[in-house]
Write a structure and sequence with these properties.
Catalytic activity: a 5-methoxy-2-methyl-3-(all-trans-polyprenyl)benzene-1,4-diol + AH2 + O2 = a 3-demethylubiquinol + A + H2O
Subunit structure: Component of a multi-subunit COQ enzyme complex, composed of at least COQ3, COQ4, COQ5, COQ6, COQ7 and COQ9.
Family: Belongs to the COQ7 family.
Protein name: 5-demethoxyubiquinone hydroxylase, mitochondrial
Structural class: mainly alpha
EC number: 1.14.99.60
Length: 242
């Protein structure tokens, strides 16, 4: 019995003398990383644009613009392709200029090819005819000499620059009418105007290059440029319609 009381007393002593665990031995983890900021509320969606539907006549006008522009840029690439070998055979220093102008025309053609496909516009039915005439014009003027080839560029770009300006004026007139009526202008329409302005400026750059390289020394300059400009006006009129 004494033994039992001794064991019980010993157990109580052990219990009372039990050393508590120090919190420093097992520190509680406290993060020092700042909490991420709470996400800002999403921006309210932009209101849909108030776009005015195109009329049938406006659709036809835009289709004719793309059709004739594609045909014109095709002709320009073929003119430079035909002119380059005869010109470089006699004027090899003109290689960078001829390449520069051709590359820009090829870029214009790619732009209108893309727009024609995107908007499902019928290309001109006179592709084969314009291809033959453009190649013949380029080759014949190059054979006549550098001056005649540059006069060809001068004449073509004079007509094309005016042609693009007329298109841009029509599109800007549409924009003004829409805005006056309280309508918005779609991004595609704005991009089309920007594309036409860029291409027009590059075409007029070609005109300046041609004049700088003796275009007006071609003989007879007035006759050569007059015939080419008349041909361009006729091709534009037909390609807008056919």
């Amino acid at each position: 019995m004494a033994s039992s009381r001794h064991l019980l007393r010993t157990a109580r002593q052990l219990t009372s003398n039990k050393t508590p665990l120090l919190t420093s031995q097992f520190p509680r983890h406290v993060s020092t990383t700042p909490s991420p900021p709470s996400p800002s509320p999403p921006s309210p969606p932009l209101p849909p644009k108030n776009l005015k539907p195109l009329t049938e006549s406006q659709r036809e006008m835009l289709s004719s613009f793309l059709r004739v522009n594609q045909a014109g840029e095709l002709a320009a690439t073929l003119i430079y392709t035909a002119q380059t070998p005869p010109i470089l055979a006699r004027e090899p220093h003109l290689r960078p200029l001829m390449k520069h102008m051709y590359d820009q025309e090829a870029d214009h053609l790619r732009a209108f090819n893309s727009l024609i496909a995107k908007h499902r516009v019928r290309p001109t039915a006179l592709y084969p005819l314009w291809s033959v005439l453009a190649t013949g014009l380029g080759w014949s003027t190059a054979v006549m000499g550098k001056e005649a080839a540059m006069a060809c560029t001068e004449a073509v770009e004079t007509e094309i620059g005016g042609h693009y300006n007329a298109q841009i004026r029509e599109l800007l007139k549409m924009v003004s009418e829409w805005e006056a009526e309280g309508y918005d202008v779609g991004e595609e329409f704005t991009e089309l105007i920007s594309t036409l302005r860029r291409i027009r400026d590059e075409e007029l750059e070609h005109l300046d290059h041609a004049v700088e390289h003796d275009a007006q020394k071609a003989e007879p300059h007035w006759l050569l440029t007059g015939v080419i400009r008349a041909g361009c006006r006729g091709a534009i009129w037909v390609s807008e319609r056919v």
